[in-house]
Amino acid sequence: MGLPKIVVLGAGYGGLMTVSGLQKQLNHQEAEITLVNQNPYHYVTTKLHEPAAGTLSPEYARVPIKSVVDTNKVRFVEDRVTGFDPDKKEVYLENASDPLTYDDLVFALGANTETFGAKGVLENAHLINNLNSVRMIREHMEYMFSQYQNTEEKRDDLITIVVGGAGFTGIEYIGELVDRIPKLCREFDIPRDQVRLISIEAAPTALPGFDKELVDYAVQYLEERGVEFRLSTPIEEVTTDGVVLKGGEEIKAATVVWTCGVRGNSLLEEAGLETMRGRIKVDEYLRAPGYENLYVIGDNSLIINPENERPYPPTAQMATQQGETLAKNLVAALRGGSPAPFEFSLKGTLASLGRGSAIGVVGNKKLFGFSASVMKRLNDWRWFYLLGGLSLMMKKAKF
Amino acid sequence: MGLPKIVVLGAGYGGLMTVSGLQKQLNHQEAEITLVNQNPYHYVTTKLHEPAAGTLSPEYARVPIKSVVDTNKVRFVEDRVTGFDPDKKEVYLENASDPLTYDDLVFALGANTETFGAKGVLENAHLINNLNSVRMIREHMEYMFSQYQNTEEKRDDLITIVVGGAGFTGIEYIGELVDRIPKLCREFDIPRDQVRLISIEAAPTALPGFDKELVDYAVQYLEERGVEFRLSTPIEEVTTDGVVLKGGEEIKAATVVWTCGVRGNSLLEEAGLETMRGRIKVDEYLRAPGYENLYVIGDNSLIINPENERPYPPTAQMATQQGETLAKNLVAALRGGSPAPFEFSLKGTLASLGRGSAIGVVGNKKLFGFSASVMKRLNDWRWFYLLGGLSLMMKKAKF
Questions:
Q1: pLDDT in the model for residue A152
Q2: Which residues of A touch B149 (CB under 8 A)?
Q3: Which residues of chain A have a CB within 8 Å of the CB of B143?
Q4: What is the DSSP secondary-structure string of B26-63?
Q5: What is the domain range of residue B153?
Q6: In the predicted model, is pLDDT for residue A56 greater than 80?
């Protein structure tokens, strides 16, 4: 009989924490661990808004998988998952003719974009999704700026940027733009006040769900730096020319970035599993209902916050804690022990507003401005420390 | 009676050297000098291939006019020349209702693009023309690279660059690309050998008119670094998809840069002057035939090389020497002296092949490789020294 096969799909926060826990705790002869990821690197999703704005090199947000995975203990497969069958216990890959088989599957492939029924989003909007898409956002924006001076009529839409969604990612992204745009203006000889930055949000407030005092701080900070907010304003369509708002108003903008939210990965529905907005309501051991050996973590897992009976928002913090617990439980199961139920512990929430400012809550304390921004940076470093220890942290801290 | 009015159109090499000579030699009460330029800065045309490739900041190639012109002696008008009438002695500007009048006019507005009858050049090709156009070339190329990873089918044309023309500018530009492309490939995770750099030239050799040994060196240097040469191959059309060669072959390329040559400024023909390929065959005092007070210098002047009975190619060196002579002659005329005939003295010719190499002839000596590249750099600095003295030279040398 072969060793038990644990297959982890996806090298995001959740997948990597699972693998990291397994390789630390398991010996060679206990299990065969396989990690599948479509890129040879992990990217730090919570930092992607920075390369998207051009304020940070994408290299900061990237960690080669081989530098954090112990290839003596874990087999790494660079491939794209095209589907899986939880009854046959098989995973299908784009470039492999035979399916991967497993005893335990950890589904940690990350989310898909939620369009909320708006038309043209996937065709015409840019997405802060991965390293490739954010490099393109930056280049797209710069290309539009460079065209401005080369058109006879100086088209204002070329230097208008619409950010759809004033949630976490949208606010963090526009915060970076507030830093970047003055530099771009100097580079391309464009007066700063010609450039429009517009944040459009369907909810009546920016950062829905956040503490009001912090939201007010963020909105004022951004407005003072030229951001226009359009609240209670759903986007009906993203076109090749810009966006059409509910009611019919059109805003012409050559750059539209969609940050309105995510839904679960479509592979879950395609595998016949029951989902809520694409996510799986997992049990206390992070398992999909009806499947003893299918674990779903990260953006694809739905867990209800007992305090308000609403789902926790999908975050890196959640995925990381799930990965840690899951690794321990998988090890316990292999050794005949019993698993511990997962409990989410919210350490805090921080949203950056560009390089020098942020807002957030840590413990019971509200943070504003520069001190929040330092906390945010320390938090980034913590992730690199968890992933690759001191040496990786120091390498990234140099950026 | 007012002071004699000298109007200089264009702040390129020729125009600036004229103004620089005038302001050094003339006293306040001798003439009213006006310089017209559409930008508040001079740009170093011979360096534009570098920002176009992204190997150098466009700021290196830019010098603010107010930093080199003595505004106590010279009136600077930032405007675009829309036409002139050499009989009425009037110059028409885009943003002024009244024409500028003059006693002496120096026409130094620079050249237009020569398409040699190829279709679609002005619509679909990029031009290494000015600061705005080269910033756009760079951004365009990078944007295409960023798109490559975001297309399902990995379209090769997105990372194919065609340079039309293997003359001076074309070779210098592709030399920069040879340096830049490996960096871009790393930045966008594209294998270097996927990228195609194609130099297309109608003549049977690259760098027509250059010493064969130097041409062979340049071609081998570039070929070893992945450049494909297509010689004796005129481009018939530039399309939105790439280029169509004579005979019908199509090369798909998202980036096409046209460096095939220049012709005289169309304003000369529009003013009713007789031209040869848009250029004016000036007399020995750099005057247009039939007009005592219309001087044409730089790319718009045609001067025959007595050694081979062919026109000198338009170069920065030629324009600079013309500006120096013309300033002296204008001063002499104001003071009742006689003008000296212009004689071009070829100091040397250097073509860069990226950062670390160049070829050229200085005096009777052929130069190759790094030493040529150092000479080329010194030559750039010499221009900054001529323009703005030691302080400007030192500032630029820091780049």
A1: 83
A2: 132, 135-136
A3: 136, 139-140, 142-143
A4: --TTT-EEEEEESSSEEE-GGGTHHHHHTSS-GGGGEE
A5: 121-258
A6: yes
